[in-house]
Amino acid sequence: MRTQVAIIGAGPAGLMLGRLLDLAGIDNVIIERKSADYVLGRIRAGVLEQGSVDLMERAQVAGRLRAEGLIHHGTDLSFDGDRLRIDFTGLVGKHVTVYGQTEVTRDLMEARQGNTIYEAGNVAIHDFDGNPAVSWERDGVTHRLDCDYIAGCDGYHGVSRASVPQEALTTFERTYPFGWLGILVDKPPVAHELIYAHHERGFALCSQRSNTRSRYYVQVPTDEKVENWSDDRFWDELRLRLNPETAEALQTGPSIEKSIAPLRSFVAEPLRFGKLFLAGDAAHIVPPTGAKGLNLAMSDVAILADAMIELYAEKSAAGIDNYSQRALARIWKAERFSWWMTSLLHTFPETGRFGRRIQRAEFDYLSGSHAAQQVLAENYVGLPA
Ligand code: FAS
Ligand code: PHB
């Protein structure tokens, strides 16, 4: 078998890249190790920057997004019960859209024209400096796909970055001493916008997927186990971290999903190795506090797709030669914002009383400074690509 671009991973990055290449008439094959149902079953991001919404429109998959996406003109921060609304539209003239990653993935899967190989075992990358190829096993048969280029869209634990010789890669990492315990529930959201809450017991987030489905998170220690958390224990803890009127308004019910995600900041440099390109979580990870993970994957793919279209249509390698530098410039700004939001809103016992006072001073400064609120707003809604 042969194709022009082999894409590893059928998450949002791989599926969006495949869709943009399909529309440009560039032959591509996606190789995914899990089943489509498994990929759709992962509950992850919930907030889209306008750039990601625009990309869904460009990909001609935005019909449901337009109908079901919830426009949010701001968000609430809560610090030990004090509330501050960040008015995105008033501060920077832009908004975000609440639309789950699961729905983004479903829309892209349904529109997929190219070949997608699901449940591909032992995926391996070959000769990405010369004549690249991808191999995999399925139903007891080993398959090989020769290609011009490989796009590694296979996430943090994927094979793409792992296939790069260590000496060719520089990584930057910060792990956090906590994770997020998340719950999905078919109950109306507690508020019409998101609430990011700092409390001495830990961070909490009130988010949503629709007017009838909500998503909540509480900060938990890294060694916490989801089986230690009954729904009742989760709701009790969440109420303790919210201000009284919000806690009172909370509508609880049986969880339809409950999981713990570790938090880390991570970047791999560069993002190109010969004919192999890294995009999305294969290249970087952000703590979800800034709602950047999915959106960064989308902006990587927009840059990479344009570079590949330029290469095949205009025989110009300028775009692919510049991909890594251009994507990393935006990635690092999102890493900074995600780290800053995480540092402001979570409890870090190791920083002691001084650390908590600095967090309180940061919140008080934000509360009193239009300029500081504009900085938060322009980062949250998404910096220009
Ligand atoms: P993905 O990880 O989504 O997709 C990679 C795909 O590659 C997967 O389908 C995987 O099965 C496949 N794959 C892996 N190894 C392979 C191999 N060897 N061969 C073939 N295929 C392989 N972001 C937010 O903005 N907000 C959030 O609340 C949020 N919560 C998250 C919770 C968790 C538990 C995780 C892990 C991430 C979360 N993120 C969140 C970030 C998340 O949304 C990612 O940014 C987003 O999924 C990135 O998309 P991809 O780069 O496509 O990677
Ligand atoms: C979510 O709804 O899953 C969500 C929203 C905002 C975040 C993180 C997660 O910052």
Automatic annotation (TrEMBL):
GO MF annotations in UniProt: 4-hydroxybenzoate 3-monooxygenase activity; FAD binding
EC number: 1.14.13.2
UniProt-listed SUPFAM superfamilies: FAD-linked reductases, C-terminal domain (SSF54373), FAD/NAD(P)-binding domain (SSF51905)
Repeat found in the keyword field: no
Span of domain FAD-binding: 2-338
Membrane-spanning intervals of the chain: none
Keywords noted in UniProt: FAD, Flavoprotein, Monooxygenase, Oxidoreductase
InterPro entries reported in the protein's UniProt record: FAD-bd, FAD/NAD-bd_sf, HB_mOase, RIFMO-like
Enzyme class: oxidoreductase
The keyword Heme appears for this protein: no
GO annotation terms (biological process): benzoate catabolic process
Name of the protein described by the UniProt record: 4-hydroxybenzoate 3-monooxygenase
Organism whose genome encodes this protein: Devosia marina
